[in-house]
Specification:
Blueprint (H helix, E strand, L loop, with lengths): L1 E5 L3 E9 L3 H9 L1 H7 L6 E7 L6 E7 L5 E12 L3 E9 L6 E10 L2 E11 L2 H24 L1
Antiparallel strand pairs: 1-2, 2-8, 3-4, 4-5, 5-6, 6-7, 7-8
Helix pairs in contact: 1-2
């Protein structure tokens, strides 16, 4: 499910309930060897993932597009609260746009976890719609990854 809040900044909220403990999903989101297995909306794949999981630490995820182009998502962690929340900046390289912000919450409930992605500071409605498709695809991959265990 996705919802939009058009205030001063464009905000996207995407939610998914996944049958897995919050600790497993938090690890899947923050460990490079796991990210490489599930990240990216199909047919995009994760070519590389680097994570320095600490406040001020950087991450770098390489999205390999079907045409062979490599697009990097980079940023820094602003909050790391395992296994419940991550907050980090989000920039595309090559790019140059101002940093966006992503908050990911892992909310355990009765044997499942509600994963809530809040993507803020999106410059345009078109970019927001692209992010919606990307996050929906990524959460599909996370759900498949969780089912493998």
């Amino acid at each position: 499910m996705s919802e939009v809040d058009d205030g001063d900044a464009t905000v996207l909220v995407v939610r998914r309930t996944i049958r897995a403990p919050a600790t497993r999903l938090f690890d899947a989101w923050t460990r490079p060897e796991h990210l490489r297995r599930w990240w990216g909306p199909r047919p995009v794949t994760c070519a590389s993932a680097e994570v320095d999981l600490r406040v001020g630490g950087a991450y770098r995820i390489g999205n390999l597009l079907p045409d062979g182009k490599l697009l990097w998502i980079v940023g820094e962690f602003e909050r790391v609260a395992p296994p419940h929340e991550l907050v980090y900046t989000w920039r595309l390289e090559p790019g140059g746009a101002a940093a966006e912000r992503v908050t990911v919450r892992f909310e355990p409930r009765d044997g499942v976890t509600d994963v809530v992605v809040i993507h803020e500071r999106i410059a345009t409605a078109a970019a927001r719609d692209g992010h919606r498709a990307g996050w929906d695809g990524c959460l599909d991959g996370l759900e498949r990854f969780a089912a493998e265990a």
